[in-house]
Amino acid sequence: MNAPLRPSAWGLLPDEWKPLCKELGLPPFRAAQIVTGLYQTFALSWNDITTLPAEWRERLSQAFDLAPLEIAHIQHAGDDVRKLLLRCQDGECVETVMIPSKGRLTQCISTQVGCNFRCAFCASGQRGCVRSLTAGEMVGQVMAACQLMRADQQAVGVPATDGAASRSPGTKPSLPRPGNIVVMGMGEPFDNYDNVLRALRILNDQKGINIGARHITLSTCGVVPGILRLAEEGIQFELSVSLHAPDDDLRSHLMPVNRRWPVAELITACRAYFEKTGRIVTFEYTLVKDLNDRPQHADALIRLLRGMPCKVNLIPLSPVEGFDGERPSDRDCLAFLDRLLKAKLATTLRKSRGKDVDAACGQLRLRTLA
Ligand code: SAH
To answer: Is 95 a catalytic residue?
Structure first.
């Protein structure tokens, strides 16, 4: 029989533990011990927080789940990229990808099981959205990665610095953690706005996982009200917008969301985001052979974005079943890049990482479900 579902301890902001302790009848100073246990000693169960009386560990374990999401499957790629399939308490699985680069780790996290938006080349939406993830499940993906990073460190002999008792107050957390978070896994973050924002605040919190806002990037398929709302949050998260086409005809063909919020409205919202936050928006543009990678597409993109403070990130298509588009040749990708650079658009061509682990959104889950 399955244990009843309990809320995840990872879904609470560090400052929420104090009032909660009061509610539960625990002295408020216990809140600091819980937060230290969660984020500094990286407890894997309530019993690991030995500063708490045994009776309270038991009571808390009945009220809150504390395990990171269960790692159901790990796929390794030649370039050190690891893609994890993680199992939630109710058995649903989500993907997260760990991408090492220049001594830092970027983690790509999911926000929903599946996706409602059905972009033509994205595997996540092929079966619709099963459900949105809770904040605890999103933070739980990061905790699962932290767990692996710690195992990696131990494997190469870096001493584990467990135990807050052995450190003086104010010491930096010992928990190895990703340097960057990109919300680019399965799901549309603005279709699960409140939970996503809560998760990102926990990841960003200095008493929590402590990842700077500028190291956290949200990617949207173009949900305009979400962009405008994020602009008002007063946090400088980085925003990426999946554009993929320079005009409404082509974009609506690739991304049904464009029928609801067309290109002009989307660009206006991106300008507003920049004006409000001072953060430059990045436009993601997946290159598909002959469909959106021709010189005329590059020129239309240049006209669309001219004069706007922004960056463009070109991503060669990662082929998926169910979409018959192909990845352009390296030469065509470079030609597209050159055209944009010559027009003074800040553009990068992303080297696809983790290609051999089906690292594009939703591919691992689909393969495992099949
Ligand atoms: N829903 C959000 C975040 C998830 S998708 C969004 O749409 O932005 C993250 C990025 O991967 C998006 O830019 C998406 O269009 C892109 N993507 C999805 N499938 C892909 C594929 N097969 N090849 C290349 N990029 C893909």
So the answer is: yes
Instruction: Judge whether residue 174 has pLDDT over 70.
Output: no
- 315 CA distance to ligand 1 middle (Å): 9
Instruction: Give the pLDDT of residue 355.
Output: 52
List of domains in the chain = 9-63 (1.10.150.530), 70-357 (3.20.20.70)
Q: How far is CA 183 from CA 88, 163, 187, in A?
A: 18, 31, 9
Distance from residue 278's CA to the centre of ligand 1 (Å): 25
Query: Going by DSSP bridges, is the β-strand pair 82-87/70-76 parallel, antiparallel, or unpaired?
Result: antiparallel
Closest among 68, 60, 66, 67 to 26, alpha carbons compared: 60
Strand intervals (E) in 36-186: 70-76, 82-87, 93-101, 104-108, 112-114, 129-132, 180-183
Interhelix angle 17-24/29-39, rounded to 10 degrees, is 130
Give yes or no for residue 345 CB within 6 A of ligand 1. Answer: no
Output the pLDDT for position 157.
76
Is 0.70 topped by the overall pTM?
Answer: yes
Q: Is 348 exposed, middle or buried (0-12, 13-18, 19+ CB in 10 A)?
A: middle
Query: Which tens digit of pLDDT belongs to each residue from 267-296?
Result: 999 999 999 999 999 999 999 999 999 999
Question: At a CB cut-off of 8 Å and minimum separation 6, what does 119 contact?
Answer: 125, 221, 242, 244, 254, 255, 256, 257
Q: Annotated catalytic residue: which of 21, 95, 129, 310?
A: 95
Q: Is 361 a catalytic residue?
A: yes
State how far the Cα of 195 lies from the Cα of 16, in Å rounded to an integer: 15
Task: DSSP letter for 93, please.
Answer: E
Q: Is the CB of 188 under 6 A from ligand 1?
A: yes
Return the pLDDT at 1.
39
